[in-house]
Structure formats: structure tokens, C-alpha cells
Write a structure and sequence with these properties.
- The protein is α+β, with helices and mostly antiparallel strands and about 230 residues long.
- The protein has one domain.
- It is about 25% helix and about 25% strand.
- It has helices at about 1-30, 155-165, 195-200, 205-215, and strands at about 65, 70-75, 90-95, 105-115, 120-125, 125-130, 135-140, 150-155, 185-190, 225-230.
- The strands form 3 sheets. Strands 3-9-5-6-8-7 form a 6-stranded mixed β-sheet.
- A hairpin with a 2-residue loop joins strand 5 and strand 6 (about 125-130).
- The N and C termini lie far apart (about 95 Å).
């Protein structure tokens, strides 16, 4: 009987000790000092603006031309633009206003439709280009008193390469207004393509034959197309 009572006391004592330990542990866990931090971050971005809008209107040929002595020497009988022997012209292409928030570059592709082989020569940057003629040709501006001998430097595709070689178009800084870029000045001529003897007047009839055939038909046409690609430099 005494052993049983002793055991009960031991059990009670152990239970009380355990309870005290648990209570002490709970109290300690809620009162110990500790570091704690919270943080949050965010950011946002929009798509960079692409603002290239293209070329200004390309006005190459005309409906009327003025001769050396003044007055219109060629006038279309309608609204079509025309070309004829002795005519010439020039134009400067430029870019429409717009800006991009990225660096960009512009490359060119120039092509010509000229099924009638109209003897047109284009001039850009002091060099001459033609899809019909080669070697040495003779040009005469409407207000010039004499012919000028020039050498054809390349075909129409080469004209496109020459336009694209302009360093101003190779690396355009972000937020540059495209309309502020210098445009390309291109001149054109209906060429007198014969040799020096014919220019001096000894072969006028032969020189005029092909031109007269074109004029008699009145159907041949020439189209110069200036294509370009503007792209981001990444």
C-alpha cells in the first residue's frame, strides 16, 4: 500500500514537472527577441515607339517643260506626265515627320519600268545611272547651251545602293525626327546617246530615228520606283 502511494506521488510530481516545462516553453517562445522584415518591389514598361511613316511624295516627272528661251515647249494633252527629247528635271526626296524611340537605319531599292527603252539617265552624287544606256552618253539640260559628255557609272540598282550609302541613313539616333534628315537630290535627262560626231551635227538623222519612233507611237512609259526599308538597329 505504501509503495502504491509512493508511486502515485512520483507520478504526480512528474506530471507537475512536465506541465511546468511546457508552460515555460510556451512562455519563452512568445517572448524571445527576433529580426523580421517584409519587402515588396515592382516595375513597369511600355513598348518603345516606332514612328517611321515613309517618304514624302515623289514628284519626278512633269506635265509641262520650259525651254531654253522660256515658255512651255512640252505640254501634255491631258493629265498624264510626259517626257520627250530635250527634257530634263530634278527632284529631292525626303521623309515624312515622325520619331522612333529606337536606333534605326534606312536602306533603298530603286527600280525602273521602261519597256520602251526610253533613254533616261539619272544623276545622283555626281554619278550617272541608266537601265538603257552604258559607257559615254551626252546630256543637255534645258537651260544649257552645250552638251555634256558623261560616263554611266551603273544601272538603276546601283542608284539604290548609292542612295543607301549615305551615312546619315546608316545609324539614326533614337528620337530623331526623320523629316530632319537630308533628302537625296536626283536629276534626270532624256539623253542624246550618240558619239561626238553625231553631237556635232553630222549624223542628226541617225540620232533622231529611235527618238522619233518612240514619239510616233506615244505609248512607251517610264516609271521610277524608290523603295526603302526602315528597320530598328538592335
Amino acid at each position: 500500500m505504501q509503495r502504491t502511494k509512493r508511486n502515485n506521488k512520483v507520478l504526480i510530481l512528474l506530471s507537475i514537472t512536465l506541465m511546468c516545462t511546457l508552460i515555460s516553453t510556451c512562455m519563452m517562445s512568445g517572448t524571445l527577441a527576433k529580426y523580421t522584415s517584409t519587402a515588396n518591389g515592382s516595375d513597369n514598361a511600355r513598348v518603345a515607339k516606332w514612328g517611321f511613316t515613309g517618304l514624302n511624295a515623289v514628284d519626278i516627272f512633269k506635265t509641262t517643260y520650259t525651254g531654253t528661251g522660256g515658255g512651255n515647249t512640252v505640254v501634255t494633252n491631258g493629265t498624264d506626265k510626259v517626257v520627250a527629247p530635250g527634257t530634263a528635271g530634278n527632284f529631292t526626296f525626303g521623309f515624312a515627320s515622325g520619331t522612333s524611340e529606337v536606333s534605326s537605319k534606312i536602306t533603298f531599292t530603286v527600280s525602273e519600268t521602261n519597256a520602251g527603252s526610253i533613254p533616261i539617265v539619272y544623276s545622283y552624287g555626281g554619278k550617272y545611272y541608266s537601265s538603257v544606256l552604258s559607257s559615254t552618253v551626252y546630256l543637255k539640260a534645258p537651260d544649257a547651251g552645250a552638251f555634256t559628255s558623261v560616263t554611266i557609272d551603273g544601272d538603276i540598282a546601283a542608284l539604290g545602293s548609292a542612295l543607301g550609302a549615305n551615312v546619315a541613313y546608316a545609324n539614326i539616333s533614337p528620337n530623331t525626327d526623320y523629316s530632319s534628315l537630308a533628302g537625296g537630290a536626283i536629276a534626270w535627262y532624256w539623253a542624246f546617246e550618240q558619239d561626238a560626231a553625231s553631237i556635232s551635227g553630222t549624223n542628226i538623222a541617225g540620232r533622231d530615228t529611235s527618238d522619233t519612233s518612240l514619239g510616233t507611237a506615244g505609248t512607251a512609259a517610264v516609271t521610277l520606283n524608290i523603295g526603302l526599308t526602315a528597320e530598328q538597329i538592335d
